[in-house]
Amino acid sequence: MNKMKTPEKVVNHIVKWLENYLKESRMNGFVVGVSGGIDSAVTSTLCSLTKAPVICLEMGIHQETDQVSRAMEHIHWLEKKFDNVSHHNISLSRVFDHFVDCVPPTDKEQEKLLSLANTRARLRMTTLYYFAALHRYLVAGTGNKVEDFGVGFYTKYGDGGVDLSPIADLLKSEVYEIAKFLGVSESIQKAPPTDGLWSDNRTDEDQMGASYDDLEWAMRTLEKNTSLEGLNQKQMEIIEIYMKFNRQNQHKMLPIPVCKIPSELMM
User: How far is the C-alpha of 135 from the C-alpha of 34, rounded, in Å?
Assistant: First the structure.
């Protein structure tokens, strides 16, 4: 696990970056989806520290009650601490259910479950941009470095559809350090990370088969081009899990491919 030297300086750097980006973009504030998880808690707090207007959205889709309660606990904490923060509770369950009723049936049950999980994330993205367009706000992303650039653990055009990413250069362990420094609630800091897209409340580790600490270790090991000789079986398994997700999710992390037309085919 990485340890940053001075969380306060990192926080000040990110807040200044947010302030400058907002000013240069000539937009009015930020909108953040708050899920009850550590990443959205830290992101929304950093945005709040800019003193620009911030709208926090809690967007439940048949959500577990503990996720909703943690999200609301954090939002209320922000509103007490900052005058520039407001929020909306938007239930998207009926919208999601109507979508499910509208699409044709399929016998591809596993593929359907994954597709519907991603649909939840995309409905939330649509909602974030509704409020962003109303107020000329920027949608602040909540992805961290391991998720966004390591294993690609996010939904394309879902939680990956954002205007800027304040914490995407922080490893998950560093996000926890920032959360502790900022005073984010213990319930959020201790909650197992989950994307909240599944009805069985599965965690991120359940889905990936490795913890964030393990994935950070794999990411650092491969970035250093360290020889994999001498690693034990467990370490090799972690490397393989990291590489599997990294390979299969390159389509999320690379720019959208564009078919270039040769000049000889043009007038």
Answer: 18
pTM, two decimal places: 0.94
**Distance (Å, whole) CA 8 – CA 42:** 13
Handedness of CA 212, 70, 46, 250 (dihedral sign): positive
- Dist. CA 254–CA 15, nearest whole Å: 27
Instruction: Tell me the CATH number of domain 7-200, given options 3.30.70.1150, 3.50.50.60, 3.40.50.10700, 3.40.50.620.
Output: 3.40.50.620
CA distances to 100, 127, 150, 153 from 248, in Å: 27, 28, 11, 10
Closest CA to 120 of 175, 171, 164, 64: 64
Cα 81 off chain centre by: 23
One digit per residue, pLDDT tens: the chain, 267 residues? 456 779 999 999 999 999 999 999 999 999 999 999 999 999 999 999 999 999 999 999 999 899 999 999 999 999 999 999 999 999 999 999 999 999 999 999 999 999 999 999 999 999 999 999 999 999 999 999 999 999 999 999 999 999 999 999 999 999 999 999 999 999 999 999 998 888 787 899 999 999 999 999 999 999 887 778 888 999 999 999 999 999 999 999 999 999 999 999 997
Calpha distance 122→7 (Å, rounded)? 32
Radius of gyration of the chain measured on its C-alpha atoms = 20
